[in-house]
Amino acid sequence: MTQPTDSRREHLQTALFLATSAVPVLPLRAGKVPFGNCRHCANNACGGRPNMKIAGPCACPHPCHGWAAATTDPVVINASTWARAWRDAAAVAYHPGGAGLTVVDLDNAEAIAWARANLSATRIVRTTRGEHWLYQGVMQSANAVRPGVDIKSTMAYARWLGTGTGTMTPLPDVVRALAVKEPTAVLPAAITVPALIGGGECPHRTPVYLDRGIAMAEQRITEARSAVHATVYRTFLAVLSAHGRCGCLTDTHVARLFVAAQAKGESPRHCTDAWANARTRLGL
Fold first, then answer.
1. What does the domain layout of the chain look like in residue ranges?
2. Which helix (H) or strand (E) holds 123?
């Protein structure tokens, strides 16, 4: 059964509105799931993008490959090849990571109570069973990080349920930490963090300043579309330039950078070499 014309038009208009705000969108069919691959892409005959690390449509013109089909291009959204999907769509979804966002999906009252006690206030969108808490910043997506809590950011999609209420705030460390699985060997033993030079309190060591800097560095790596190795090196160099001489950095901060780099396909050895080269260039 297809959706009524008014419903189909509403979904399309919502998608176009979001696209103008640089939010990549895609249609969802019944059951809140993406449309499957077209016959040209069945069984990844097109080359496949199940592990693709960037948003964007498949080379074919259809809304294939789930979250990876999300786009902000109104020509694609309005294309005749997407018309059937909009005709059968039950909802509109978006790629949070592609919009520079992270969604903390709280599925029940207990999860909401935990968030209120542990997370910083931000924009909240009501869902059928709980709430979506939206933060500025991207990270790796992860399911079931706590009972009733999922994280949707890169390589994931979230259902669009409205703009919500409240002011969106930066992604806090406590959310990033939820996606870190134990044990996690991200930081090789060969990596060292510069010690405080000259003694005294670091002038940069405030939660807001340091977290913002590391979050921006993670985002720069995550959003790299090409020359990933060079981007990782330049990002490491920038972080060490800002914090390498004053003792701000801890193993936890460096591990976050390594996690972001390895999520883009960098090997632990490449991360180690990039870090060491950046330190050498700065004389640390």
1. 5-92, 98-170, 207-282
2. strand 123-126
